[in-house]
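Question: what's this shape?

___
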Amino acid sequence: MSVRRQHVLPRGLYRFVAAMACSVGLGFGSCMPDPLEVSGIPAVKPEIVVSSQILSDTLVVVALTKTIGALDASEDSDPYKLIDEIAVTDATVSITTKGKSYILPHLQDGAYQGHHIPMQPGDTCALNVTSPSLGLVSASTIVQQAVMFDTVTAGIYPYGDLKFAQVSYRLTDPAAQNYYMINVQAAKREVRIRNVMNPDAYIKLVEDNSFNGTSFSEVFISAPYKFESGDSIAVSLVNVTKDYYDFLKLRAVNRLGLVEYLSEPITYPTNVKGGRGYFNLHIPDVRVLVLE
C-alpha cells in the first residue's frame, strides 16, 4: 500500500483528530432551536458513537464519543465543553486482524491510537470497545484500497461579491466498483474547535459507474463556503465502502449536524453493534493548496 506516511501526532492535535473524525462521520451544518426547559421526560441511556481514520498503513485513530439528550445541547453549545462532556475516556479499545489483537491506548478527548497494526487492502478488521460506564460495542470493516489523486489544483472562483474554491482533479480508477468522497475545507495552522465540530466543509460524492477502470477528471465549485485569495485549503480523496457512501448520501440529504446526530431519539444507519457511528478503514490522500 503506497501512502504518504505520517507519524505520531503532536498531543495538541488529538482534540482536532477526534473532533474531525466525528464531523466527517456525522455531518456538517444545521439549524437547531435553543434548548428547552422540559421536565418529566425519562432520561435515555447514552450510547457510544464510533468514528475512525487511518493515518498511515499501520497507524489508526478511533474516536469515541457518546450520545446526548435531545434537550441537553444546541448549535450554540460551547464546543470545548461539549467535547469534554461527550468524549469516552474510560474504554478499552482493540482492533483484531489476521488473528492478532492490538490495544489502542487512550490519548486525549476520546481519541485512541493504534501503532504498528498491519492493514492491507482487503483485510478484515474487527473493533471491540469495552466501557465500564457505557458497555460494549463492536464493528467490523474491510480495509479499502487507497486511491490517490493523479493531479489536483485549486483557485478562486468569483461569483459577484463572493469567492469560492474551484477544484480541478484527476484520478485513475481501479477496475472495480468504487465510491469516492472528496472533501474541501479551510486548512489553517490554528483551527478553531467550533469550526472543526461543525466545519465549513464541502463534501462531493463520486461513483465510478461512468468511468470504471479508467482515468477520470472533473472541475467543481465548493459552494457555498467562501474563501479569499491566499487562503489554504485541504482537498482530500477517500475511496469508501458502498455502505458508507450510502450513509454519506443520506446524511447529505438530511443535513444533520453533530449535535443533532448525537441527540436522542434520532436513529441513523450504522455498522456498529450496540452503538452508533461508522467504523471505517480508508486512507485519505490529502493535499494542501493555496488559493490564488
